[in-house]
Write the structure tokens for this entry.
Amino acid sequence: MFGLNFGSKDPWPLKFGTHSFDAVCFNVVRCSVIYDRHQHSLHEYEPAGAPLRPDWKDSWRASYGVGTGFPPPAQVDWISQDGTEHHAQVDIGALFKDRLVRHNVPKEEIPEGWLAANAIEPVPIDVLMEINDRTITIYTRALVATRTPQIPGNPRSMGRRDLIEVWTHTY
């Protein structure tokens, strides 16, 4: 999507152009997540237990490409462990209406060329939804280039992809 322009040539703060989405359910009797007319839960008809590993979020990425716009709110229907039925609409577009990339990289740590390129081709982000018993949490993750390796001595680690919590609600 070259040439996306959201009204400014200034690359700071970082803005995103497109987003991808993923949802996971844990500790529920049943769980259905529909976003962009697509079912994102593997537990629509069956229980979901606890995560298999405590560090599961470290490698969590979104695989469903949504594009530049925002579809209607995500429809989340689930039954928590206590048997209570829950229904929620989570408006991803409203949460990200500013199109800001949430990250932990200071501007002075970002290479100037990468920053300038972001003004022309905004960075894509992952929007990640976790349903865990009675709580929905929205995270985001984006690759932001860095001037120095994040793993000392590893030139392939010139960026960070931090998981940032954007919103949470317990029902």
Q: What stands out?
A: Residues 1-7 have pLDDT under 50 and may be disordered. The chain has two helices and eleven strands. The longest strand covers residues 16-26.
